[in-house]
Amino acid sequence: MKAMRAAGEPRLGHEQRMLVVDAASGELSDERVTSLAIHVRPGDVWVLNDSATLPASLAGRIGDTDVELRLSGELSSGRWRAVLFGRGSWRDDTDRRHPPPRVSPGDTIALGGSLRAHVERVDPRSARLLEISFTPRGDAFWRALYAVGQPVQYSYLLRELELRELSTAFAGRPWSVELPSAGRPLTLERLRDLRRAGAAVVALTHAAGLSATGDPALDALLPLPERYDIPDATAAAVMRALSERRRVVAVGTSVTRALEGSFAAHGEVRPGPGETDLRLGPNTLRRVSCALFTGAHDPSSSHYELLRAFASSRLLERASRFSAEHGYLAHELGDSWLILA
After folding, report:
1. Which domain holds residue 97?
2. What local confidence, expressed as pLDDT, does residue 302 receive?
3. pLDDT digit string, tens, across residues 226-252
4. What is the number of domains present in the chain?
5. In this structure, are 129 and 224 located in the same domain?
6. CA distances (Å), 63 to each of 48, 59, 108, 109, 269, in order?
7. Burial class of residue 106, CB neighbours in 10 A (0-12, 13-18, 19+)
8. Are 233 and 143 in the same domain?
9. Residue 13 in this model has a pLDDT that exceeds 70
10. 20 inside domain
11. 230-266: burial string, b at 16+ Cβ within 10 Å, e else
12. pTM passes above 0.90
């Protein structure tokens, strides 16, 4: 199958293409994101992930060896999950990066300035998956992180992007280590269009994790458990919609994981913080999300498998062929799909 080309530059809002995939009829419709509101049904609840993106890539040294540490997610105050890479940078193909040196609990990684990462645990599933703590702590940690950290990015990009280019228009708390990319095309104007068409637009916060680790065995475990926080108003709006048989539209697979993970754990979408290890796929029993607005994911990407919770493999293959043949751009800066499940 011909692959979609990765977007080397962010698509501007008015340029953003959108493939509408109707899972019931099998119909594919080539549109623009500017027409998104015509697919709103009055009473829909559209749920956004309002997490901002962290500068989660940290260049460092272990002894005399250059390494890169990529944060994967915060576990508790001062403790993080992270993935260690060998020498190189985002300009190198992730899967061809030099392997990192082996580390053990107690080892320290110098990260620039006063920032240090201390290895607390090495995951038995992959020697590059670590649990770490940092010094300094508290507010000084956050100042150091933003001083020396860079956003995670990949070799298909044409230039190094600034952190501001890798957050959505409605971003709030900095929880995600990569851009929750499904919401990137939703400018404030697009959100107004949705509301004018009769949709309620609400948000939750989900810590989107890494999409690639350089280790095939570790990539196969993605996504790793991720934390979320669902506001009272969002949980109430979603549960009312379900009780009244109105649609809940998830903007991104991270939103889907939070909503479905909460429902699976509690029998309802419950407000408050949580963590989900739910892995979406063809056997996922969706209890909440009726449709998905997402990026145009190439079949080689780790996110593609998640789409099978919304449409059959056969239909997704057709959608991928169509997207490739019609010049859709893939990955987090590319075009969009609206899957009506």
Report:
1. 57-148
2. 63
3. 999 999 999 999 999 999 999 999 999
4. 2
5. no
6. 43, 13, 9, 8, 48
7. exposed
8. no
9. no
10. yes
11. beeebbebbbebbeeebbbbbbbbbbbbbbbbbbeee
12. yes
Terminal-residue alpha carbon distance, the chain: 24
**Who wins on pLDDT, 36 or 332?**
36
Can you tell me the distance from the alpha carbon of 154 to that of 89, in angstroms, rounded to the nearest whole number? 9
What value does the mean pLDDT take over residues 61-80? 94
In a domain, 304, yes or no: yes
Is 230 within 8 Å of 261 (Cβ atoms)? no
Considering the domain architecture, whether residues 261 and 333 belong to the same structural domain is answered as yes
Identify any residues that bridge with 200 across adjacent strands, giving them in sequence order.
Answer: 45
Q: What is the DSSP secondary structure assignment for residue 151, as one 8-state letter?
A: -
**pLDDT classification of 77: cutoffs 50, 70, 90:** confident
Region 277-293 average pLDDT: 93
**How many Cβ atoms from other residues are within 10 Å of residue 69's Cβ?**
24
CA 286 – CA 128 distance, rounded (Å): 33
> Strands 329-330 and 5-6: what pairing?
parallel
Provide mean pLDDT across the span 303-308: 83
Residue 155 lies in a domain: no
Q: What CATH number did the domain enclosing 47 receive?
A: 3.40.1780.10
CA distance 253 to 224: 13
Q: How confident is the model at residue 105 (pLDDT cuts 50, 70, 90)?
A: very high
Q: Could you give phi then psi for residue 261, rounded to 5 degrees?
A: -65, -40
